[in-house]
Structure formats: C-alpha cells, structure tokens
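Final report, Chapter 2: Outcomes

The project's central promise was a pipeline that accepts a single protein chain and returns its three-dimensional structure in a standardized token representation, suitable for archiving and comparison. That pipeline is now operational. To close this chapter, we reproduce one record exactly as it appears in the project archive, with the input sequence first and the structure output second.
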Amino acid sequence: MKRSDKHNRFRECITAFARLKTNRFFRPSVLLVFFNLLAFPALSAPQDIKNDQNILQEEIKALSTAKLRSIEPILEQLEKRGAIYLPLFQALLNGQLYFKKSNQDIVKLGQDQKGKRVEEDLFSNAKRPIESISEYKKIRTNNRLRVKLREIISRLELESQDFETRKSAIFNMIGKFQKEDIDFLQELKKQEENQSILELIEFAIALNDVKYSPILDTRIEALEQISGNLDPRVKNTLNSILKGDLLLTNPPDSQIFRPLVEAELGRIAKKERFYSLLEKFSFGLSLGSILLLAALGLAITFGVMGVINMAHGELIMLGAYTAFVVQSLMPQQVGLALIISIPIAFFVAGSFGALIQYFVIRHLRGRPLETLLATFGVSLVLQQLARTIFSPLNRQVLSPDWMTGSLVINPIFSLTYNRLYIFFFALFIFTILQITIKKTSLGLKVRAVSQNREMARALGIQTNRIDALTFALGSGIAGLAGVALSQLVNVGPNLGQAYLVDSFLAVVFGGVGNLIGTLVGSFSLGILNKFLEPELGAVLSKVAILIFLILFIQRRPEGLFPQKARTLS
C-alpha cells in the first residue's frame, strides 16, 4: 500500500468518526472499526514483503542450476530489474553467493562478530547460524564473469543517491562505457548538481569521444578537453590510437589527428618525468626525516662529549618496542596508544642512555677506542635482551586511521599521511631541541662544557651531571626516532642498526655538533640516496654515497657548517 493511500484512509476514518453521533452505544463499535482500519496496512505489510522476497527468490533460482557459461545471460536479465539485485551481484563478485541443496534458495554466507559462519538473506539482511557448510554449494565465477559483474555493479551504482557511491561508479567505468552508457551519462549530466561528478562525467564522455567518434572535430575537441590529464587511461587510449586500433576511417583525417595525439603524449611524458622527480624528492625527505631524528641524538652526544655511541641504534630499537608494548596494552585505541608512547619512549630510551653513561662511558673518558668497543658490546647485550623478551620475530605496530591513506595530488603522484606526519614531527623535535640548546639554562651549560670543559668546571658547572643529562637527552631523541620508525617498518631487534651508519654520516657531513648542519646533512643524504637507488641499486647507492663523503671530508674535514669551536648552534 502506498503512503498516499494510507493517508487517504486515515482521513476518511477521521471524517466518518466525526459525523457519527457521540452516543455511548456508538463509541465502542466505532473505535473498534477505527483501529482495525488503521492496523490493516501494518498487518498486511509483512505478508507483502514476504511474498516479494519469494518472488525474487524464484527469479534468481536459475543461478543454482546454471552452467558457468549460462550465468552471464542470467545476470544481464537481472540487471534490467534495477538496483534491487545489487546485493546479489556484490555477493557473487566477492565469492559469497551460495544455494541451499535442499530447496535451491540463493543465499549469502558471511560471518558474525565472533567469526562464525552465518546465512544472510539477500533481500532482508536476516541472519541465522548454519549447522554445516556441506548444506550449501558455492556458485562459481571466472575472470570473465568478475569483469562483467564489476561493470554491472558500476552501472547500477550510477543511479545511487549517495554522492561517493555515484562518483566511484563513474570513475571505475571510465574507458569501459558502451554507446548506450554514454547516452545515459548525457542524461545524467543534465540532472547532476555536484561539480566534481560533473567534471568526471565530462571526462568520461570526452575519453569515449576521442576513442570512437567518427567526426574529426569532435575528436579534436575531446582531445583538448582531456589534455594534461595524467589518468593512466588517457595515456593508454592515446597509445592505442597511435597503434592504429582507434584511428578514423577517413585516412586524411587520421593524418591530421595523429600528430595531435603524439604531441599530447609528449606533454604527458614530460609531466610524468617531473612528478617522478618530485616523488623521489618526497621519498628523500621522508628518509631524511628519519635520519634527522636518529642523528640529532648523535649530534648532541658526539658534539658535547666526543663519544661515538655504537649502541645508538639499539636506543632507537627500544623506542620502537616501547610503541609496540603500549599498543599491546591498548589494542582498541591505536591512535591514543601512539601518542602516549612518544613521551614513554623518550623516558625509556633516555633512562637506558643515562645508565650507559653512568656505568660505562664516564669511566672511559678520553679513551675513544675503548668507548667505541664498550658501547658496541652494550648494543649486542640490548639486542639479545630484545630477542629474549620479544623473540627474534618482527612485530607490527599498527597505524591509527588518521595516519593511513594518502594525500592524492594527481593520478600518478600522492603523499602518504604517515610519512607526512613523521616529516613534521621530525621538524617539531628539531625546533624544540634548537630552542632548548639556545634559550635554556641547560643549553647554556651544554655549550659551555662542549667549548671548554675545564673552564666550565671552574665556573661551578657540574660537568658530570651535564654529561649525564646530555647523553640522556640524545638517547631520548633516539627513542622518538624508534616510535616514528615503527609506523613505517616492522619492529625487530636489528631495527636501529640499519640507520646507525647513515646517522653518523649525516652528523659528519653536516658538521659535528651543529644542529643546523645535522638537519641539512640528513635531508641531503636522504634525497641523494633516493635518487641513486633506482639507478645503482640499494647496495651500490650506499657505497657511492660513502665514497662521496670520504672525498668530501678530505676537502672539508669540518663538514658543511664548520665551527671554530665545537659548539651546538
């Protein structure tokens, strides 16, 4: 029953009720009739729905007995009925469509929240547990059918009221539209109000015209419309035209059109080269941000104390494992766990750094070789400790929703959110550290000790305490680098070793003890590495960078930003 019919019935009842005498003998009977009339649609509706579902089941039962080659014609007939069969097409595409062996009913098999198999009605979404999978038989598909199903689903979704569904359907169907689909798009264009979808429809029509239109002017106009578009389907279409697959039937027209296509392909190739370089540059900045976080701690400890800490990589590893442990304790709150792990990782790595300085390094002051060997031994101990507690297997730290996905600039260039967040996080830590060194009392004492330890001691500065705080600060920053790395790679006992040498190179290249130099050195090495890797490979690129740095240090031992005295600036 339609909504208008229900309203008319309601109005008639009210009118009749008002005309009746208000006698007490009339009231019970009138009320009884009144409520029966109102209840009639509600009582009849479930029966109508059930009948409709039975009819739909009868229409699709042919799928249960159809051969694989006979399924496609059935799907084409069902498509003509409209979006009512959209759940069926989606279930078949996802491999979830089955039929009962007992009565040939078509159902969808899914899972409940506990992971148990359940039977789902395609039209009512009703679910019930199943006793045995043997009661059902899967309706098979092949690659050809799956391609057909995607096209059918996209065509049905074109009429969806949901903006994102409609947009996604048009985007997925671009380059696959038939003539009747283009006619439908023309009608859809007249009704569409959303500007982004309108642009997408115009692009789809233009791409179709440049492929199939028999009129030269139409093709030229369409080519101008899609000019500069970096969608891969544009390039593929234009290449097909040059191969002769989609040329005009009139040879003179083809001779005019071909140079235009070649010129457009040249413009596309030029843009692709530019964005390829831009992509390498962005990857270099991403690697440089990790190197910056790892090298900042080394810049402080090496610049102030002159200590080469071979356990610095393991301090990075401790920060990464801290993020893993915090997330294990808060599995349902991934984003909050990541934020909480930042100060905790700083404290854990800083505490280990303070212990290393107190028990090892302070007893070996002035003996760089012994210090190097001792810290190398500490690194082995920390690695074995991680293997004992967490096992040698790598662990995964999940990324929160706001760090997943990409910022899409165009179809061939995008920036992942996790790398963007890490880049700005590294710059933030650098800024805080720079302010700490330049503007705070601790920073003043650190610079005094780095310039002249004996003079600083004579002025009443407790150099041993400053050494401990400096080493703890540098170690804590290494822990922050570990948290950042956990969002890019899996956490393992050897995590920090891969970045130890590169961090030292960044510090030496930029200038020992100079934070600005460390910043420039980290990003320079990161960018250089990403530009050389595609050409030389991962190993040879690192060898080339090492040779370059050796030659560079021979000419400029002080680095890019030399200091007259070993100061932090």
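Archive annotation: The first strand starts at residue 97 and ends at 100.
This record, like all others produced under the grant, will remain available to the consortium after the project formally closes.
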